[in-house]
Write a structure and sequence with these properties.
It is a single chain. The protein is 45% helix and 15% strand. It is of the alpha/beta class and 366 residues long. The radius of gyration is 22 Å and the shape is globular. The N terminus is likely disordered. The chain binds calcium ion. The site of calcium ion has 5 residues, from loops.
Length: 366
């Protein structure tokens, strides 16, 4: 490659080429890259915005500052729901969000973050890395000039905050609830008015009765939002988000403009974050739940079994309807179902049996 072409391809940053005066080999200092990352998270949001910043730091360390990434929270450079387009169009090089926010681009993308009654964190990781999950995700995002990387899971989320008890599915009728993704579509079928209120507005809307109920993430994040001050009942389990995955996304051209070793560093740092993220949720949710129940007297309630059964039935209809909206959706839904079936019985005799065995003491429903 001609030197001029090389410099042109390297594109960004100060590429320096030094020639040995002693007639030794050429020493070529690697090109440096300065990127921007935009996220869908509010500034300082624990674990998730932290995760974006940690990824940037790790890439900088591992690349010995050859790739630096400046991270911007939602609204600092791009609004939360504008990050997909910003990265797709190359306005910025990378982003962090969750694939179900982009259902409007392709309904199939919802499967890459959360499927109601679908796979948990372990199952999702298995589908991405040992099944066809990541391959299908890459196929879907390619049409938008994007490369996705799984950013880690929240684990099973909570079912949400309510001011009236949910005793039957009839109780969802007429309710105004903030709930995203496929789960929201399930409740819409039961007559719930579903909203996707941005994080920063949920508390006020719940307090003023603009919405009657909300889900958010899990105890750690819900405690910080202060929902216990404006809602009585905290329901579980998060049937609608059993192992929600966050995502990193990279502009395809920007990613491919990196030398191979930097691409490998980006991939390795993303994989490291995938483990880090789940560890944060797993280590901090229990303590936050205890605080909600013992200090703030939150009433912790489980959705009745027949409610969950009905939600599951409706969910099956929703999945088929949503999948049919795009050829990729059909492919993804079929693959997901097949994978869930494949690993299903193993979970029942491993994790489930084990949890049932050790589930004594700790916090009980009030
Ligand atoms: Ca949620």
């Amino acid at each position: 490659m001609e030197r001029r072409d090389f410099l042109k391809k390297a594109g960004i940053g100060a590429a320096v080429i030094a020639t040995s005066t002693l007639g030794g080999p050429y020493v070529i200092a690697s090109p440096k890259f300065q990127w921007k990352m935009v996220t869908t998270w509010p500034p300082k949001m624990p674990v998730l915005q932290d995760g974006a910043e940690r990824l940037a730091k790790r890439i900088e360390e591992l690349s010995e500052e050859r790739l630096k990434i400046q991270v911007y929270a939602a609204g600092e450079l791009v609004p939360a729901m504008g990050i997909f387009d910003a990265v797709s169009q190359g306005t910025v090089e990378c982003g962090m969000g969750a694939a179900y926010y982009w259902a409007g681009k392709n309904p199939a993308f919802q499967w890459f973050s959360a499927v109601p009654f679908g796979l948990n964190a372990q199952g999702m990781a298995a589908w991405f890395h040992a099944g066809n999950g990541l391959k299908l995700w890459e196929e879907g995002y390619k049409a938008f000039n994007l490369i996705p990387r799984p950013a880690g899971s929240t684990g099973v989320q909570m079912g949400g905050w309510f001011n009236k008890k949910i005793n039957s599915v009839e109780d969802f009728k007429g309710l105004k609830m903030r709930i995203p993704g496929l789960g929201g579509k399930v409740l819409a079928k039961l007559g719930t008015t579903v909203t996707l209120t941005p994080g920063g507005e949920i508390f006020t809307n719940l307090e003023r009765g603009v919405i009657d109920a909300t889900e958010w993430v899990g105890p750690l994040h819900d405690l910080r939002m202060g929902f216990h001050k404006v809602a009585k009942y905290y329901y579980y389990p998060g049937w609608h988000e059993p192992g929600t995955y966050a995502e990193f996304m990279f502009n395809k051209k920007a990613y491919e403009s990196l030398p191979k070793d930097l691409q490998a560093i980006v991939d390795a740092a993303c994989a490291e974050m995938e483990g880090w993220l789940l560890a944060q949720f797993e280590s901090q949710n229990g303590q936050a739940l205890e605080e909600l129940v013992t200090k703030h007297n939150v009433q912790l309630l489980k959705f009745p079994d027949d409610v969950l059964k009905k939600l599951k039935e409706i969910n099956q209809e929703v999945l088929e309807e949503e999948a049919k909206k795009d050829p990729l959706g059909i492919k993804v839904n079929e693959d997901f179902k097949k994978f869930q079936k494949l690993i299903g019985s193993w979970g029942a005799i491993s994790e489930m049996a084990y949890y049932n065995q050790i589930a004594v003491g700790g916090i009980q429903s009030k």
